[in-house]
């Protein structure tokens, strides 16, 4: 059986409907009106132990609501969930012992006590054996570069320091499952890198199941093999990241540097359906093309016919383009056979 299993999972909220202005506020006070908002609708989810899954979607798609149900914070309106054989809402304590969670926007550390003391409290709460605690603490301090701030309180930490401390806190008890909700939000490149390497190591060495919610596509490409896209509370794609890249990233881009300006070619390319010319200057340009209509060699030979090509390089399919197309409503993955 899968380590995380959800069937027909739904969650609705009652949202107040208020007309604008003072009149609307008074009216709402006297006769409050609410509508039911379906945040998550009939979601089926099945995640195997050791998987790294990116759970992505536009703002308001239902990502956090799903994670909150999986962690036991929210009770589903309908459907069932089993996390390592446990119903997270009914058995919140048991569920907490087997999961780690990082909510990037919030901290689970005690605000006014040194980080190392927070860790020590977590050791008692989770009843982590001395040897495990010692080994993990040393490894986490080293890998996440926490030595310089381990004796400061959470209040005094920068965002990047706080996030590393939060990640360590979530994993001290070696949970088999970790939920990461925007763990790299607002962080600089080097801290992001540390966090990604750490997550990779934990996943590889301990087969920790990772479910990652992020708007950072670098996180996804670096960490996840499987991609689940949710929109308006429903899953619209669930499959491998490489498959989505190769099947759905229709556009390829080739960058060219040519020996002399080629105005005739530029005019021809900009009038060709399925191709788009982007001129950087007289002798440098890129051609993006629909790879279901043209091959890369067709594009290259068309340019070569017009003049000397000094250099060219092709850009790999980018997951960002795919997700953006889904967000913008330009790509229906179901229609393409997902
Ligand atoms: N406590 C709540 N009360 C009422 N509506 C809620 C509540 N929590 C979430 N919603 C609504 O449910 C929908 C899904 O919200 P959710 O926070 O799960 O989205 P999300 O995908 O995590 O978005 P984001 O990327 O912006 O964090 C939204 O329309 C939101 O307004």
Short summary:
The chain is α/β, with parallel strands linked by helices and 338 residues long.
Explain how this protein is built.
This protein is of the alpha/beta class and 338 residues long. It has 2 domains: 49-245, P-loop containing nucleotide triphosphate hydrolases (Rossmann fold), CATH 3.40.50; 250-316, 2-Layer Sandwich (Alpha-Beta Plaits), CATH 3.30.70. Helices cover 38% and strands 28% of the residues. The strands form 3 sheets. Strands 5-6-7-3-8-9 form a 6-stranded mixed β-sheet, with helices on both faces. Strands 11-12-10-13 form a 4-stranded antiparallel β-sheet, with helices on one face. Strands 2-1-4 form a 3-stranded antiparallel β-sheet. It is globular and about 75 Å long. The relative contact order is 0.12. The chain binds adenosine-5'-triphosphate. Adenosine-5'-triphosphate (ATP) binds next to strand 1, strand 2 and helix 2. This is Sugar ABC transporter ATP-binding protein. One of its GO terms (molecular function) is ATP binding. It holds the Pfam family ABC_tran. Residues 17-257 form the ABC transporter domain.
């Amino acid at each position: 059986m899968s380590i995380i299993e959800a069937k027909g999972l739904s969650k609705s909220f009652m949202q107040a409907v208020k007309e604008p202005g003072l009149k609307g506020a008074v009216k709402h006070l006297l006769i409050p009106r609410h509508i039911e908002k379906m945040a998550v609708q009939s979601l089926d989810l099945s995640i195997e132990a050791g998987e790294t899954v990116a759970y992505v979607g536009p703002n308001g798609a239902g990502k956090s609501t799903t994670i909150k149900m999986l962690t036991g914070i929210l009770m589903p309106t309908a459907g069932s969930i089993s996390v390592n054989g446990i119903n997270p809402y009914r058995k919140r304590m048991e569920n907490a012992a087997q999961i780690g969670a990082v909510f990037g926007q919030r901290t689970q550390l005690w605000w006014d006590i040194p980080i190392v003391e927070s860790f020590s409290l977590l050791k008692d709460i989770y009843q982590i054996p001395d040897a495990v605690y010692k080994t993990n603490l040393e490894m986490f301090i080293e890998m996440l570069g926490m030595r310089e701030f381990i004796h400061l309180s959470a209040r005094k930490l920068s965002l990047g320091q706080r996030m590393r401390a939060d990640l360590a806190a979530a994993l001290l008890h070696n949970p088999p499952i970790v939920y990461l909700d925007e763990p790299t939000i607002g962080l600089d490149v080097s801290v992001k890198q540390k966090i990604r390497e750490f997550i990779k190591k934990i996943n590889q060495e301990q087969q920790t199941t990772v479910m990652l919610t992020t708007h950072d596509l670098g996180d996804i490409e670096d960490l996840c093999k499987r991609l689940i896209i949710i929109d308006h509370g429903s899953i619209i794609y669930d499959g491998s990241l490489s498959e989505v890249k190769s099947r759905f990233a229709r556009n390829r881009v080739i960058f060219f540097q040519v020996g002399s300006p080629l105005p005739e070619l530029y005019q021809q390319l900009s009038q060709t359906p399925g191709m788009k010319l982007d001129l950087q200057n007289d002798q440098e340009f890129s051609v993006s093309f629909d790879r279901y209509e043209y091959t890369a060699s067709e594009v290259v030979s068309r340019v070569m016919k017009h003049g000397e090509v000094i250099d060219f390089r092709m850009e790999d399919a980018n997951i960002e383009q795919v997700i953006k197309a889904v967000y913008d409503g330009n790509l229906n993955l179901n229609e393409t056979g997902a």
